[in-house]
Amino acid sequence: MRGLRYLEDAVTLSLDADKCTGCGVCTVVCPHGVFAIGADKRATIVDRGACMECGACALNCAWGAISVEPGVGCAEAIIHSWIYGGEPTCGCSTPGDSGGSGSACCGGAPASPREISPTTPEGSDCGCGCGSGATGGAKPPAGEA
Amino acid sequence: MPAGLYRVGEPTSSSPVFVTCNYRMTVDLVRGDLAGIDAWLLVLETYGVNVWCAAGKGTFSTDELVRRIFAVHLAEVVDHNRLILPQLAASGVAAQTVRELSGYRVVWGPIRSADLRSFLASGQKATPGMREVTFTFAERLALAPVELLGAGRWAWAIAGYAALSVIGASIGARGFVWQAGLMALFPAALAYLLGALAGAVVVPAALPWLPFRALSAKGAVAGAVVTVVALLLLPGMLGMLSAWQWAAVILGVSAFASYVGVNFTGCTPYTSPSGVERELRRAIPLQATALALSLGCWTVAAATRIGG
What we know:
The structure holds 2 protein chains of 2 kinds.
Chain A: E1 14-15, H1 25-29, E2 35-37, E3 43-45, H2 56-60, E4 66-67, H3 75-84
Antiparallel strand pairs in A: 1-4, 2-3
Chain B: E1 4-8, E2 17-20, H1 24-33, E3 39-43, H2 51-57, H3 62-71, H4 74-77, E4 82-86, H5 95-102, E5 105-109, H6 116-121, H7 137-150, H8 155-170, E6 171-172, E7 175-176, H9 178-182, H10 185-205, H11 215-233, H12 237-240, H13 243-263, H14 273-307
Parallel strand pairs in B: 2-3, 2-4, 4-5
Antiparallel strand pairs in B: 1-3, 6-7
């Protein structure tokens, strides 16, 4: 991410090169270019400080070579978990889930920047559209066409 | 919108299958970006939450994808086994498990649906640029109104600060003079407005240019700068308050802006939870200290004014 870096040494990411088969899926799923396939045809961590601990690499490594403690990098969620216990979760909740804290955003950024819009039609208090249970107006599912 | 399988254009059994969340705006975006391309759109039940958040929360998950593949009888609709997923769903979906459980192969598509067309045109290959999240000025600024409105949720803290400021300013050389304290109300309200502006607008907008990595530090700097600028620009401000009162305002603004600033971590696509936790452990005591000093300044200001 150009121009924006966070605390470099506070990252739980680790890679066990012995288990790596060089399939390269970590280089594909990482949104911050943390991994590259090295000269030895195995993955290496080339930009550890850029890791945001989203957990995509570890989840998709079929060989269990990567470990990271994934979570939401959101102050409000972490403070909430300190006060009320439990794992930090973002405030934008699935129905019936009162976890989190009604945060202005939702633990990580929206999938597509263009999703963020202050003029969100399903106006929730959250820029990323969480909880904005969209209703009506949708084309019916194609079903078993 | 309801989860299920949707048509884009006139897809056939060999058309590509794109998977996305059921946040209406996302679906509309993907449909728009695929205009002119015949494809299937498999919409998962993420309770109206966008892809990345839903993946993090575990609703855009391996289980949901596999369940949905069978629920829509995908095998009767298409004759291939490739699913194109948004890359940011990878924190919720394990491709190897999807293959094991359903036989479908996950192809990691680009992060932004705007890149889908060129992704398809290049034989379903994403360039490195398509694989990296961005946080541009426009993207950050779009979050500012949300942040600004969100700053209102700390109104109780501000009310407490204003009350304590009034008490602090009441305690002067002549004992407790509440009339003297009331004059702290306006600067305390000013501190709130400036702090919200600094933390919720200046921090997002000027994120890469503010010094320090920690967002709490960026917020504190933004708060001090905004206060000094307001002090210099607003006519009559400089003389309205004494130096000690201005010190109280600057400390109050910085503490509040620092807190609002660190809360922006929830909106950024690059802050790690370990980093945020480390930052918070340092920042919260400092913010509390700055607030306490700010309240102390009200008392000193009252004491020096009335005493002198």
